[in-house]
Amino acid sequence: MKKDIFQKMQILSDSAKYDVSCSSSGSENNYKTGELGATQNSGICHTFTSDGRCVSLLKVLLTNFCIYDCAYCINRVSNDIPRAAFAPRELADITINFYKRNYIEGLFLSSGIIESEDHTMVLILRTLKILRNEYKFNGYIHVKLIPGSDAKLIEEVTRLASRVSSNIELPSDASLKLLAPNKTKEKVLQPLKLARDFSMERTNKPIGMSTQLIVGATPESDKDILNLSSALYDKALLKRVYYSAYIPVNDDKNLPALTTSKPPLLREHRLYQADWLLRFYDFKADEIVNESNPNLDEELDPKMFWALNNLHLFPMEINKASREELIRIPGIGTKGAMKIINARRFKKLTFDSLKQLKISVKNAKYFITCNGVYQKDVPMYSDKIKLALKPPKIIKSPSLFEIDYSVITGEF
Predict the structure, then answer these.
(1) DSSP conformational letter for 357
(2) Distance between CA atoms of 223 and 290, rounded to whole angstroms?
(3) Which of 2, 49, 186, 311 has a CA-to-CA distance to 27 between 20 and 30 Å?
(4) pLDDT tens digits for 119-168?
């Protein structure tokens, strides 16, 4: 039975929901007369731009037919699920109609592997050519590159896309071999390397790229995950790594059974916070997690976790510490550090001065002195500080006060 457009949309948009490796922060292009979709720091579905605006995107698969048999994927070839596929013209028309009705600001396009990697990339490329060349759509388009496809196809797609990604999914070759036998780390990273080099040749800067890592499906530690992320950032292969708490969708002997427990959303959240330290606070991965502490403490944010493991560096004098030292103090961010540096040009700062600057000392007070004064009644022992920071336990009915961990996912 032939599926109509609404059935296809229902199947293929639902199939795309497990992919979180998309973002448009910083996406920007120039308006050209006669073209559609000029954007300013926008473009992705239900996320926030750098200026705080919520934007939307049509997030859909070209097809959920797939020749791969990845154990964690709902679209694996061995699953008996409804299947559908858009023709390139079909999907391009839907995108433009949605855009004109102000439903979306761009497109996130991924796909299962239908027939072969090259065949799938050809279909994706046709879709982009219709949007860019026929409809003159100048808006945001994020494309999931297909590992193993021809370099020329990757180059053409990269030229037409606003951002690209290729999902590593699992942090080690051993885990990929176990759960995704059609993939290797080299195969998944190759499209990103090609896209980086093509865009550097054309514009002298790499196109925005991202990937997704599944958290909790395999036994790798947070140290393994963050070391991989850090290496990818250092090689300019990625703008973002997205962490996705493992959600069981298949029954497979090689996957953990999470039927009685929740997905590791709190662990995912801590990884996002640690990732923030890597990208914006100049931390190295081995400072946050190492052989002695291979996993983050889920009760503490990663900067606090680092500080408690490095108490020999504290307390820091607020009137003398450099910017690099200030931003490592728990509770003080980049904006707070600049406020302190600017204010101390005129006077010696006290704890009251910090409050006047609207800098919270709730966490910082354990790690600083102000004009040589340490906050009274504050312990200087790791275990005691951790105990002081933990909120008191309140026994309530689980049926009424069960924590919804979904509210703490996302960027820190």
Answers:
(1) T
(2) 6
(3) 186
(4) 999 999 999 999 999 999 998 899 999 999 999 999 999 999 999 999 99
Angle of helix 151-160 versus helix 185-203 axis, rounded to 10: 50
Which residue type, as a one-letter code, is found at position 148?
G
Number of residues written out for the chain: 412
* Nearest by Cα to 336 from 327, 347, 349, 344: 327
H-assigned helices in 281-395: 285-288, 302-308, 323-326, 334-343, 351-356, 382-389
* pLDDT (tens digit per residue) in 43-62: 345 554 555 656 688 999 99
137 φ, ψ (degrees, to nearest 5): -75, 115
CA distance 189 to 167: 8
- All structural domains of the chain: 5-207 (3.20.20.70), 304-402 (no CATH)
The encoded tokens of residue 102 equal: 């102000």
CA pair distance 282, 250, nearest whole angstrom? 39
Pairing of strands 54-55, 47-48: antiparallel
Predicted TM-score (pTM) of this structure: 0.84
DSSP-derived pairing of the beta strands 208-215 and 163-165 = parallel
